[in-house]
Amino acid sequence: MTVSSAAAPQPASPAAPLLFTPLKLRSLELPNRVVVSPMCTYSATDGVANEFHLVHLGQYALGGAGLILAEATAVSPEGRITPEDLGLWDDRQIVPLGHITDFVHQHGGHIGVQLAHAGRKASTYAPWRGKGAVPAELGGWQVIGPDENSFHDLFPTPAMMGADELRGVVDAFSAAARRAQVAGFDAVEVHAAHGYLLHQFLSPLANTRTDDYGGSFENRTRLLLEVVRAVRHVWPAHLPLFVRLSATDWAEGGWDLEQTVQLSKLLKYEGVDVLDISSGGLTAAQQIEVGPGYQVPFAAAVSRAETEISVMAVGLIETGAQAEAILQAGDADLIALGRPFLRDPHWAQRAARELGLRPVSIDQYARAGW
Predict the structure, then answer these.
(1) What is the C-alpha radius of gyration for the chain, rounded to an integer number of angstroms?
(2) What residue segments make up the domains of the chain, in order of their start?
(3) What is the rounded average pLDDT of the residues 227-233?
């Protein structure tokens, strides 16, 4: 099927805004810097994608996003946030995801997937179904973590991971990345943010271990580096690898921006191409100072650390002008948006018009009169 690409707006003037300038990541060339941030929808059965995921993710290809990142997709059953999470721990989950990547590619888009393990924040209810731990009789399971401390009194109590579980997590990420390739994804993102397993190991507030995986910065970053190394080993050399980090726990004594910058320099040598900089999610005691673009300074600090890795900013970025200003300032190379895309799947086309471009729609939507 041949269609017009919705991702390449035509300039109304010779100088195109940076937001709509292509970016090449290894052999993958994005037509613009607009990224749909991974957003959990808690709508799968046994980790298998369905028509909802096809429509939900496919609409963003029709709307002109440069890259779509599919939601946190569990690398193992016990790694799910909720019983309804997407998964890539079983071969039977490949084909349904392949239907989605095929659709996106047929309509000129690019799509990646975020690989995740929830650790001590697993086995919980979807937000609209309840709060806290899901009991075993309703499909809950024993969760694992760096130690035996739970995220919150309402959350499950984790079992402290031993050597077998640590090795198993690394192997699970690697196997999920292989399945992602078969499913046709253009990129993978390792989720090490928002208080999930890999972030739990990074933060002293969630990791009280005294072995080689706890204590010092070197030890707390060990599991993430092992996971990234394993994923990069199996992920095709011509395709990009993303890592999402929470730059700060927003809590005293936790993971912070200085450590994030230090870690970003290590990730450069592991073949990471993009750092997706977010924040928070590790502790219920966090004190987040929310405002427009509130996480952009974290992305800017990593961007200026001279890691030679592209940086993606996210967090209360609402307009094309705001996104363009971030890029013009050199604070990031890519702009990720979540809620704005939920409100308007054609956000990229609207932003193009806002920045003085003539958006190009697929043929079926041409009558919209962009």
Answers:
(1) 20
(2) 10-368
(3) 98
For the residues of 191-258, what is the DSSP string, one character each? EE-TTSHHHHHH-TTT----STTSSSHHHHTHHHHHHHHHHHHHS-TTS-EEEEEES--SSTTS--HH
Choose, from 42, 60, 125, 196, the residue flagged as catalytic: 196
Q: What is the pLDDT of residues 271-317, one digit of tens each?
A: 999 999 999 999 999 999 899 999 999 999 999 998 889 999 999 99
Q: Which fold has domain 10-368?
A: TIM Barrel (3.20.20)
3-state helix, strand and coil shares in percent for the chain, rounded to the nearest 5:
35, 15, 50
CA atoms within 13 A on the CB side of 69: 32
> Is the distance from CB of 39 to CB of 85 less than 8 angstroms?
no
Whether 196 is catalytic is yes
With a cut of 60, say whether residue 164 has pLDDT above it: yes
User: How high is the mean pLDDT of the chain?
Assistant: 95
